[in-house]
UniProtKB/TrEMBL annotation:
The keyword Glycosyltransferase does not apply. One of its GO terms (biological process) is acute-phase response. It comes from the Eukaryota. GO terms for molecular function: interleukin-6 receptor binding. This is Interleukin-6. Keywords: Acute phase. InterPro entries: 4_helix_cytokine-like_core, IL-6-like. Cytokine with a wide variety of biological functions in immunity, tissue regeneration, and metabolism. Binds to IL6R, then the complex associates to the signaling subunit IL6ST/gp130 to trigger the intracellular IL6-signaling pathway. The interaction with the membrane-bound IL6R and IL6ST stimulates 'classic signaling', whereas the binding of IL6 and soluble IL6R to IL6ST stimulates 'trans-signaling'. Alternatively, 'cluster signaling' occurs when membrane-bound IL6:IL6R complexes on transmitter cells activate IL6ST receptors on neighboring receiver cells. Belongs to the IL-6 superfamily. One of its GO terms (cellular component) is extracellular space. SUPFAM superfamilies: 4-helical cytokines.
């Protein structure tokens, strides 16, 4: 008996894309909940705080993550470096600010994505990871400034992840072997305990 192969088979979502999607959903919900808790305003009013948000790392055109000048190794290196910065900022949120039950999930998915990307880089130890602002200096800040800093982290991390997810999907769709071109095995290692 022959199998019907005329129907399109459902494409399996690669693990790194699944993790990036879960992280983006989790951070978006956390950002929105925290904004409403801290400022008592609907999410649509978030744009009113654009002028007070602190600058934080995002994907820039020179990182070569956009389709026009795309470079998988360079883009992946930047995604890794910026994820590490936000990973440090999440420690501040956990210690000083957030009580949200979503934060452990955000930390877990951030750590998982960092580890996956690290395995694909030829020399991750060469990646410069410098925080653009020090959370330790916030101990003397007012409650208002702590709220602004929290909002800045969550808002910018969400914006960064939108671009990072787009770049990772582009790499996957185009069949880039990321950085380790000598690796002929699966593009991403399988994790023993999958949570999705």
């Amino acid at each position: 008996m022959m199998q019907d192969t005329s129907g399109e088979q459902k494409r399996h979502k690669p693990q790194e894309i699944a993790i990036a999607d879960l992280l983006l959903r989790s951070i978006t919900r956390l950002r929105d909940e925290q904004f409403q808790k801290d400022f008592g305003e609907p999410v649509k009013n978030m744009t009113n705080y654009e002028h007070v948000r602190r600058e934080m790392p995002l994907i820039r055109s020179e990182d070569r993550c956009r389709h026009k000048n795309f470079s998988a190794p360079r883009c992946l290196k930047q995604i890794y470096a910026v994820l590490r910065i936000y990973e440090g900022h999440l420690g501040y949120l956990e210690k000083d600010n957030l009580t949200s039950a979503r934060l452990p999930d955000v930390k877990h998915w951030t750590f998982s994505l960092v580890q996956f990307i690290r395995t694909k880089m030829s020399s991750p130890e060469d990646t410069d990871v410098q925080s653009s602002s020090s959370s330790s200096s916030l101990k003397e800040e007012s409650a208002w400034m702590k709220k602004i800093y929290t909002h800045s982290i969550l808002y910018n991390f969400t914006s960064f992840l939108i671009d990072a997810n787009r770049a990772l999907k582009h790499m996957n769709d185009k069949g880039y072997d990321y950085v380790k071109t000598e690796n002929k095995g699966p593009k991403w290692p399988l994790e023993k305990h999958q949570h999705w």
